[in-house]
Fold this sequence. Notes:
mainly alpha; three-stranded antiparallel β-sheet; 3 strands; coiled coil; Ebp2; ribosome biogenesis
Amino acid sequence: MWMSxxxxxxxxxxxxxxxxxxxxxxxxxxxxxxxxxxxxEKVKGKxxxxxxxxxxxxxxxxxxxxxxxxxxxxxxxxNERAKQKKEDIESVKKWRKxxxxxxxxxxxxxxxxxxxxxxxxxxxxxxxxxxxVAPGMVLVGMQNQMVERGKKV
Length: 153
């Protein structure tokens, strides 16, 4: 008896599916029988509010993690810049030391430097701190007017 019922049930199930007729109960079928629609809407609203709170908490957590990651990246960049600066300073010190010991050797990687001021003329540093100011001139006030001692120009 049990087996015959199960085989009939299987054939009916397939037949209804082929005919595309609804024959299964809804997932909340029993809930509708026990609770009113107003109560179900209230519960649904609470569930949605709770879901929204969880999503907002996750967003705040992601924002904190992103901020932390950004700080780490910034610190890493600063360390790289400091390292590069240190290497540059060491390179300049090495170059100066080599230059003071009599220039660069011809077998060196770079060889002699061909600089435009190295054509027989020695390089002299100017003694003036502000070459655009004439000896008798003084800069006055916010207008940056050049005034000769005692006279306006």
